Amino acid sequence: MAEVSEYKTLRTEIAGVSVARLATEFGGTPVYVYDAATIVKRCAQLRSFGVVRFAQKACSNVSIIKLVKEQGAVVDAVSAGEIMRALAAGYKPEEIAYTADVFDEDALELVTGKARGCVVNVGSPDMIEQLGERLGADAAGFELTIRVNPGFGHGHSRKTNTGGEFAKHGIWHTEITDCVALAKRYGMTISGVHMHIGSGTDFEHLKQVCDAMTAAAKKVGASVKTISCGGGLPVPYQSGEEFIDLEEFARLWHETKAALEKELGHEITLEIEPGRYVVAESGFLVAQIRAIKSQGENAFYLVDAGFTHLVRPMAYGSYHPISVAYNPALTTPIPEGDRDVVVGGPLCESGDVFTQKEGGLVETRTLPAARVGDYLVIEVAGAYGAAMASNYNSKFLAPEVLVENGVPRLIRKKQSFEHLIANEIF
To answer: How high does pLDDT run on average in the chain?
Structure first.
């Protein structure tokens, strides 16, 4: 029987540490908290794949990247900054893959210089040409991989669908042969095929992806040594949702790998590129309720975290479990019962609401009755939370805390005003 998620609306601790302590000890609220044990568990579940390559864009704190490295995973980077983060976490260039649809100058300089040796996974034909021109005579023997757009996609939102003719990602499937020829012109070889078409997975759709991968790899030919099935592994955000059947997911991809090995006559390495699956459930955004008010028929819990800290609800209408943690420092009685409330933040935007659907439709959530000063915990927030944070409204970036074996450790200080304006010139 498939494992089913269960989220409660009242909590006292995270990874064995009281919410009140986490909310006060490391720079106040809002604060991101990560449970290391969850990350370790998720990495272990993926070991049936040949190579686990962490998509650090989901959660790019160097301490998180280092923790994933300790689990034996390599890493994916989508920018020069992410390459540098991976190097800072202790990865060697050959353990890093750079995946993008364009080279900016910083990234091109890195992959041909200081970080030469990292896997270059190109998503546009122009990248092949730019790489060959930059390498010049050194291009001979250089191996690269290509990200292929198979002509269709999948995702929980149109904004996260990364395949099909309206997606900017990847080399169009009919241009693979041209790209092979373009690489050969510079003496380079395409040694791998990557295919990531969006988040979310159903197995009928996955079979189509596997077939598309087989077709793409055959077009490249015998030089293919690696296939990457990308990421997008879903996690449950609501109680009652089932966890993905990883065994079935792996079975389909291992069948694809075996068929290609037979076709091409040599062994092939299978890679998976999880981001959300590794870190989402590990992360909690702890905020404090700063106001409780009524607006007509609706009650509001207004907290000190906004979409500058977690943008997914505003950007995609994403659902996150929410729980209340009572503040033991308060002397007023804890109220009884539940309330249907809208949860909003402090920003000067109507879209600064954590309880909304895609398209901006605000909805209520049934939560325990609370007091001003109690804490509110937004859960399953480890993926695309802190990594997508901004300084809009000149809000400070939140501190980040990693809990390992019941011990919390600060891994990012709360941003200061001096840091906020450090690069501005008066």
So the answer is: 94
The dihedral built from the CA positions of residue 315, 318, 321 and 323, taken in this order, carries a sign that is positive
Q: Which of 118, 179, 229, 348 is catalytic?
A: 348
Give the up-direction half-sphere exposure of residue 29: CA atoms within 13 A in the CB hemisphere.
25
Residue 229: active-site member: no
Contact predicate 54/75, CB 8 Å: yes
Distance of CA 340 to the CA centre of its chain: 30
**Number of C-beta neighbours around residue 88 at 10 A:** 11
pTM attached to this predicted model: 0.95
Q: Which two tokens stand for residue 255?
A: 């069948």
For the chain, percent helix, then strand, then coil, each to nearest 5?
A: 30, 25, 40
Q: Which residue has the tokens 């939560």?
A: 367
Distance of alpha carbon 101 from alpha carbon 301, whole angstroms:
41
Dump pLDDT digits (tens) for 276-311.
999 999 999 999 999 999 999 999 999 999 999 999
Question: For the segment 184-222, what is each residue's pLDDT rounded down to a tens digit?
Answer: 999 999 999 999 865 556 788 889 999 999 999 999 999
Greatest distance between any 2 Cα atoms in the chain? 75
How confident is the model over 140-169, as a mean pLDDT?
73
